[in-house]
Amino acid sequence: MSASAEMTIETPSLFEFLPSQVKILQDNLTSVQAKENRKEKHKLIKTIRKEILELPESKNLPLEKREDLKTAVNSWFARRTTGGGQRIRFGKIWSARMVLYEEEKDKVNSLKMKLYEKAKGKGKTPRSAFHYFQEAITKLWDELDDEEQDEYRKRARQWNVEGLSKEKKRE
User: Fold this and answer.
1) CA proximity to 21, closest of 138, 129, 60, 120
2) Single pTM value for the model
3) How many domains does the chain have?
């Protein structure tokens, strides 16, 4: 297989890119893949497509072939940049309220049980104490002042970036 044959990439429209076109596509692939915003990604692809169409070898193509080239560029990027969609993140995503729970498990759990027992005492038939978890966290959250809430928010951002400390993981 010759060097130029290795450099050509076929797209679904069976368009064969020239080596100079392939180089531009490959040089820009990582920057297109890095774009999270769909509009920004399309804008970048449009810029790359214009760059390819400005090449002397692209300008010499007949009008029909230039249209095929536009489609081929779009197709080339579509095949290499999709499939990511929403990435699945493994691990916990921390919110300020969940940091509060992690730090004050005993308080939350005892308040949850109190709320459960209180509901049972009023003649209600609650399914389980678990159903009072959010209510207990909300009650504790509302008791905090703004500075304490901000501290939990900062800690949540920190834990999302760095993860839990080794001591917390051991717990």
Assistant:
1) 60
2) 0.45
3) 2
